[in-house]
Amino acid sequence: MPQVTADVHTDGMEIIELDPADGDLVSGAFDVMTAAHAVDHPENPAPHRATFVAGLSYPPPDEDEAHFVAVEDGQVRALLGIGMPNRGNLHFAWAWIIVHPEHRRKGIGSALVDTYVAYARGRGRTELTLDTHMSWEGGLERSKAGQLFNEHHGFKLALTWINRRCAVDALDAATEQALLEKAEAAAGDEYEVISWIGRTPEELVETMARIDSTILAEVPLGELGLEPETIDAELKNAKADRNEAMGMKIVQTVARHRGTGEVVANTCVFIHDDGEFPDAYQGITIVDKDHRGHRLGLLLKIVNVRLVRENFPHIRAIWTDNADVNAPMIDINVTLGYEIVDAGGEFSRKFEA
Ligand SMILES: CC(C)(COP(=O)(O)OP(=O)(O)OC[C@H]1O[C@@H](n2cnc3c(N)ncnc32)[C@H](O)[C@@H]1OP(=O)(O)O)[C@@H](O)C(=O)NCCC(=O)NCCS
């Protein structure tokens, strides 16, 4: 088993585990993210400084995280983020690597892959992933560097998602209203639609945890070997604490089945608590298997985007990633006005236990 090294020296370059309290290194890391964004995918939402900084100190409660920086001549040249589930899927690790555009093709990215593999293998992980932006037909041209780099390191494409953007006012008011009424008619009287901003109301935490626990079993995962994980009320609340710590506001709309009192459909949008940042992110949308075919997905998304518009007038667009094979979700998104921007790939490599 490889040993984990917190500090690796390669020809004048040092790889250091990032201490969230080290303001200079944290700033240098963020500057690399910003420079790469400007060159690689400037149309996508920019990295958000406060959220990045807070995230270093508040890892997700169901994941262990680590960040490393590659430093040369006192400057951060590249950044590696690693995540490892800590409740289930203990064989799994994911990571992302960003090298400053002016310092590529010098082996820095490869040194960070070595750091990642040593770190994750040293903690018993056998399925490791790396992701990257890619091009998609009808979208913007993206560099093939990430894809070729991942393949160069033996990581194979396991899951492709398409990245779409929707202006919050993509539909004219009459079209949106007509779609909403059609969806309401299809849903009938069996469901109560409930919305909120921020934490899940206490009385819904248990039932929300139940539907969240179905996510990994229901979303397409391609070749990734991920098992469903149980989300209980305690974890749900811990995730809400983290969102607050990171300055994220959640706009959420659910359908509660009147007969059973259970939440059977859910959609949510994540917004930076920052009145100047124009982009928001679509979180999971899920409809329980037994309640599909009633237009609940479309209904909830329209109600939710209206809430976004009313409460966060500075938000101009919502971004979403869908597995390329997720036809029902993509159909809803296209109806709502989502347009292709680019794509992403999750590349995986399996190791012997
Ligand atoms: C992908 C990325 C991390 C590569 O970093 P890097 O430091 O330039 O990578 P390395 O110098 O270690 O490259 C190792 C090998 O990957 C392949 N590779 C990297 N960039 C490539 C490119 N632009 N075109 C073709 N092959 C490339 C090559 O095989 C290269 O070996 P070589 O230079 O001897 O031919 C960098 O381009 C980047 O930050 N891209 C944006 C973020 C991203 O897509 N990350 C993907 C990994 S999570």
DSSP helix fraction: 25-40%
Low-confidence stretches: 1-7
Hetero groups bound?
Answer: coenzyme A
Using the 3D structure, state the CATH architecture of the largest domain.
3-Layer(aba) Sandwich
Strand content: 25-35%
Task: Specify the biggest β-sheet.
Answer: 14 strands, mixed
Instruction: Tell me the distance between the termini.
Output: 9 Å
As for the number of domains, it is: 2
Broad CATH class of the largest domain: Alpha Beta
So, the CATH homologous superfamily of the largest domain? Gcn5-related N-acetyltransferase (GNAT)
The helix-strand sequence is EEHHEEEHEHEHEHHHEEEEHEHE
CATH topology of the largest domain: Aminopeptidase
Mean pLDDT: 94
Domain N-acetyltransferase: 13-162
Pfam families: Acetyltransf_1
Organism: Glycomyces algeriensis
InterPro entries: Acyl_CoA_acyltransferase (IPR016181), Bact_Acetyltransf (IPR050832), GNAT_dom (IPR000182)
Explain briefly what this protein structure is:
This protein is an alpha+beta fold. Helix content is 33%, strand content 31%. The chain has helices spanning 23-40, 49-57, 108-122, 145-152, 173-187, 205-212, 215-218, 233-245, 296-311, 327-336; strands at 7-10, 13-17, 63-72, 75-85, 92-99, 127-134, 156-167, 191-197, 248-257, 263-272, 279-282, 286-287, 317-323, 339-350.
